[in-house]
Automatic annotation (TrEMBL):
This is Truncated Paneth cell-specific alpha-defensin 37L. Keywords: Signal. Residues 1-19 form the signal peptide. It comes from the Eukaryota. Residues 1-24 form the Alpha-defensin N-terminal domain. One of its GO terms (biological process) is defense response. The keyword Signal applies. It comes from Equus caballus. Transmembrane segments: none annotated.
């Protein structure tokens, strides 16, 4: 069940990375 945690963390990171540039612009 470690894969789930990794996937969730990756998803959160991707969301943050996409929200950062979008919010800045």
């Amino acid at each position: 069940m470690r894969t789930l945690a990794l996937l969730s963390s990756l998803l959160l990171l991707a969301l943050h990375a996409q929200a950062q540039p979008l919010g800045e612009r």
